[in-house]
Structure formats: C-alpha cells, structure tokens
Amino acid sequence: MQPDKYIPPYSxxxxxxxxxxxxxxxxLARPFPRNMFMSWKRFLLRAxxxxxxxxxxxxSSATIFMPWNLEMKEYACLGPGVDCYxxxxxxxxKCATVSQRCFLCTASHDITVAAHPQIEKPIIIxxxxxxxxxxxxxxxxxxxxxxxxxxxxxxxxxVEPWNVVGGNPAKFIKKRxxxxx
Length: 181
Prior knowledge:
Blueprint: H1 12-28, H2 38-47, E1 51-52, E2 57-58, E3 63-64, E4 70-72, E5 77-78, E6 83-85, E7 90-92, E8 97-98, E9 103-105, E10 107-109, E11 118-120, E12 123-125, E13 130-131, E14 136-137, E15 142-143, E16 148-149, E17 154-155, E18 163-166, E19 171-175
Parallel strand pairs: 1-4, 2-5, 3-6, 4-7, 5-8, 6-9, 7-12, 8-13, 9-14, 12-15, 13-16, 14-17, 16-18
Antiparallel strand pairs: 10-11, 18-19
C-alpha cells in the first residue's frame, strides 16, 4: 500500500494530521471496550485514510501512528495494546492476527550516517499469519503466509511462509502444519 501522496512523517502537515487523528481516536474510539462499535472504529480509521475491510478488527487500546499507512484485509485483527508505529505502510493480510501488546515498527535510524536520519520500510503480514503477544516486528519485514511469530520474539528478517519462529533475534523453530480435525 502506498499513500496517494507521500508526506514525510515529521512534516508540519503530517504532525497536524497525526494530532487530529490522536485526539479523534482517544475521544471517539478508546472509550469503547473490546469489540463494541467495531464498525464505528473502522469508520474512524477510514476517515483518516486507512484501507480496512468490513470484517477487520482493531481494538480501541491499539495505537496507530498514521492510519493512512494502514491496510487491513478481511478478518485481520490488531489486538489490544498493539503499537502500530507505521511511518511507512503496514499491510495485514486476510485472517492474520497481531496479538496483544505487539510492536510493529516501520522506522529506524541510519547508523552509518553521522546525523542518524530516520529511515522507513514497510511491514507486510501475509494471510493467516499470527504475531503472538508482545512480539516486535522491525522495518522492512515480511511475515509469510501462515507463519507464526512466537510471544516476545524480536523479528528483524523476513519469516518464510508456514514457519514458526521465536526468540531474540527470532530463529526458526519448526514448520507449521495444520492438522485435519
């Protein structure tokens, strides 16, 4: 997902938009617990430029830095307390879940330059992936289809489809196999 027009994350225009968004979300969405008024929360996100499916869920305690850089497909979920620092786009695929208190971080700093300028890279969480509780996903990472990121893992490199990873830094644990019931 690319916004219609790129606005640097710390420009005056962007700061004003983020302030308006923050006030709006705090007053009009945060008071509603859990899944109450989910369509209202989706409406607010769309009003600020998010591309969000009618079946996507965003808990009111989630923090979204720039909703215009968020795309959520059918049945995608941002759980309670998720920190979505999306200075660059974040795409969450169909039936993908980002569990409680995860940190999705699309920005860092270039440590090879004396001024340490900020750099932004998108995060993609593909269909049926699960990012478990309190995991960190860094800039430029793609979590493959059906992959699982274990609780409290720190992911700095792409995760292959249908792999389970965990730890800091995240390492391959096993292949994910779905059993027929």
